[in-house]
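re: that chain from earlier
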Amino acid sequence: MKWTVLLVLLGMLQVSAKVHSQHVAIDLKMENSTIEQVLQRITDQTCLNFFYNNSAIDVYKKISVELKSVSVEEALKKIFDGQEVRFDIDRDFVVIRSVSDLQQEQVVKIVVQGIVKDEAGQALPGATIKLKGTSFGVATDVNGNFKFEIPVTDPLILVVSFVGMQQQEIAYKNQPFLEIVMKNEVEMMSDVVVTGYYSANKKTYTGSATQITQDQIAKISSTNVFSVITSMDPSFKLVNNNQAGSNPNVMPKFELRGGFQYSRCQK
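^ sequence. v structure.
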């Protein structure tokens, strides 16, 4: 099975970019919507994930709310007006708890780490590991390893996925190190076109697709994958960032077919 660098790159970009989402200004107007729906809209804007116990907090209550350039904390105070709740805001998630809840201790977080391999024992870089029911997660590094911190939930289910492999759900039970083995999909990769949104059968796919292999990239340059892809496919365009300059810690932005710009959080 041949893997292309572009597919791995897209998988890593999908969840690896980290931003301080709680500092994003929130703008929204919703009428006669449940609190749960309002929180989902905030997740769409900020990439923050919300954790709560719906038996203790009424998230099905319908409200009308209008927010203009407010912080996450200000938005939550207005959304939960009249309910005695407490917010614990981290970089990537918010835990909402009822004040009447007896458990008022600091939010307990755990570190989940492990490696993702294929059936042959080869590491899979760019595999995604997410907390089920959320968009919160990470991508494996070039050696197939991953490590991230999440709040304790019960049950705690991890969803692991990789292009061309069967998606797996792993029940985390305080294992110190997870070794996850992915199984091949029945359909061969040579018969599939991966668009970034879904996988389509090559015979019936009518769109325009470009495949760039690792060998092709190595013939041009081994230092900058983005520049190589730009030179090989005109629909892939790097967006100049003069403010960031050559800062290696800044993830470059790129446009696909001139109109779509890959954002900081794609589900």
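The chain has a mean pLDDT of 76.
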